[in-house]
């Protein structure tokens, strides 16, 4: 479990094919005294991965084809910068919202406006539209954000707007987004649970699949 509050960014050092997918290696952004251990969970751009090795200042993860095909991790190349968040400890503050690290789909940036305020419009797969709640929470590339605008329920091409404050622009890579950029999307777990429960009860939720 994560919060979507980003304090660390990491540089991709290598992406090497393996028999199980790829081995993703990052320059560890964590202090030596707080180094992740083998088997620990790290959210990389919002995708929960397991530490496979931590040697020589490098964090390595094995990324399987299922993950590569359903997230943006398959697009990474050496030199790219990603968000890295350690999993919550008991007693930690939850300043964002509960993020599971289970990516629901990949969104595409349609527009970025920087005049007056930083605002981006992101289109998501049609089956995610039912989880978009005005002023609700969403994780974009692992960053906990508030939905500033959402498309009408049942929209054929659902989309939403996010706005970023200067602090978020400074601490994350989202300020580099441009039309055509792809981002990992995780909808709010509470909303997904409510929608799934209503659908099992036969209540129409506005889904179009």
Ranges where pLDDT stays below 50 over 5 or more residues in a row are: none
Which band does the percent of strand residues land in?
Answer: 35-45%
The level-1 CATH class of the largest domain = Mainly Beta
How are strands sequenced across the largest beta sheet?
10-9-13-7-8-12-11
**Number of β-strand runs:** 13
Give Rg in angstroms: 17 Å
Mean pLDDT: 94
State the major sheet: 7 strands, antiparallel
How many domains is the backbone divided into? 2
Helical content band: 10-25%
Alpha carbon gap, first and last residue: 29 Å
The H/E string reads EEEEEHEEEEEEEHEH
Going by helix content, strand content and strand pairing, the class is mainly beta
CATH architecture of the largest domain: Beta Barrel
Counting DSSP H or I runs of 4 or more residues, the number of helices is 3
Oligomer description:
single chain
Shape estimate: globular
Q: Under CATH, the topology of the largest domain is which?
A: Elongation Factor Tu (Ef-tu), domain 3
How would you portray this structure in words?
There is one protein chain. By secondary structure, this protein is mostly beta strands. The chain has two domains: 8-86, Elongation Factor Tu (Ef-tu), domain 3 (Beta Barrel), CATH 2.40.30; 105-200, Elongation Factor Tu (Ef-tu), domain 3, CATH 2.40.30. It is 11% helix and 38% strand. It is built from three helices and 13 strands, in the order E-E-E-E-E-H-E-E-E-E-E-E-E-H-E-H. It has helices at 65-70, 166-171, 189-200; strands spanning 8-18, 21-27, 41-44, 47-55, 58-63, 81-86, 105-113, 118-123, 137-140, 143-146, 149-150, 159-164, 182-187. It has a seven-stranded antiparallel β-sheet. The chain has a six-stranded antiparallel beta barrel with strand order 1-2-5-4-3-6.
């Amino acid at each position: 479990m994560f919060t979507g509050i980003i304090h660390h960014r990491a540089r991709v050092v290598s992406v090497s094919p393996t028999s199980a997918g790829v081995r993703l290696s990052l320059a560890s952004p964590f202090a030596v005294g707080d180094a992740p251990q083998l088997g620990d969970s790290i959210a990389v751009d919002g995708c929960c991965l397991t530490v496979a090795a931590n040697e020589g200042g490098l964090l390595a993860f094995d990324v399987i084809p299922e993950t590569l095909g359903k997230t943006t991790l398959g697009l990474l190349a050496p030199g790219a910068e990603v968000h890295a968040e350690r999993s919550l400890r008991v007693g930690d503050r939850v300043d964002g919202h509960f993020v599971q690290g289970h990516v629901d789909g990949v969104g595409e940036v349609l527009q970025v406006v920087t005049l007056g305020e930083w605002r981006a419009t992101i289109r998501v797969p049609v089956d995610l539209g039912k989880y978009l709640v005005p002023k609700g929470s969403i994780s974009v590339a692992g960053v906990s954000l508030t939905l500033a605008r959402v498309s009408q329920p049942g929209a054929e091409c659902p989309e939403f707007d996010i706005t970023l404050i200067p602090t978020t622009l400074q601490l994350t890579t989202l300020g580099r987004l441009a039309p055509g950029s792809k981002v990992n999307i995780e909808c709010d777990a509470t909303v997904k649970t409510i929608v799934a429960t209503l659908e099992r009860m036969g209540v129409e939720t506005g889904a179009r699949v």
